[in-house]
Write a structure and sequence with these properties.
mainly alpha, two-stranded antiparallel sheet, 4 strands, SRF-like, 10% strand
Length: 177
């Protein structure tokens, strides 16, 4: 057999990409693809343990672990050993946090859909009101600050357009954003 390595099922030989920029871009795209596939696997099967460690062409380490680094490495090193009670607790807690964050992302996606003027269905509206009912004070404060910033930027852009200066490179007034 030759010294060639093959990628995936397509039998595409892996060869070093000589152009550094192309090599970095390719690494970044492949890393993103791996992380997306690992995330989808975790999303579909809550009880799966996944770990990915990779190094960029520049030697910078990247990793993805679910539910935790310790549980994945522990199972890899000793597949027949049962995790401790504390380990199982931390894993369960990590899985719960992932589910909560996934739920929050789904709600934000739905709010974004509504804000972008897409017609929401009845289910979406019910979820919006449920989301609004559960909003915390700190979330409202952050939203107000964000809306103030958006208002400032929009007013600045409007003044620029009214004055005929459509360039966005001009700094906003009063040291704004």
């Amino acid at each position: 057999m030759s010294g060639r390595k093959y990628l995936g099922r397509k039998k595409i030989p892996i060869e070093k990409i000589e152009n550094e920029t192309t090599r970095l871009v390719t690494f970044s795209k492949r890393k993103s693809g791996l992380y997306k596939k690992a995330s989808k696997l975790v999303e579909k099967y809550d009880d799966v343990d996944v770990g990915i460690i990779s190094y960029s062409p520049n030697g910078k380490p990247y990793s993805f672990f679910h539910p935790t680094f310790d549980s994945v490495i522990g199972r890899f090193v000793s597949p027949d050993t049962q995790p401790s009670v504390d380990g199982r607790f931390f894993d369960a807690n990590a899985r719960i946090k992932v589910k909560e964050r996934r739920g929050e992302l789904d709600k934000l996606d739905m709010v974004e859909k509504i804000i972008s003027n897409q017609t929401p269905d009845a289910n979406d509206m019910e979820n919006v009101w449920e989301y609004i009912d559960n909003v915390k004070e700190e979330d409202v404060t952050r939203l107000e600050e964000w809306l103030d910033l958006v208002d400032l930027k929009l007013n600045h852009k409007l003044r620029m357009l009214e004055n005929g200066a459509s360039s966005s490179t001009q700094a906003p007034p009063n040291g704004g954003f």
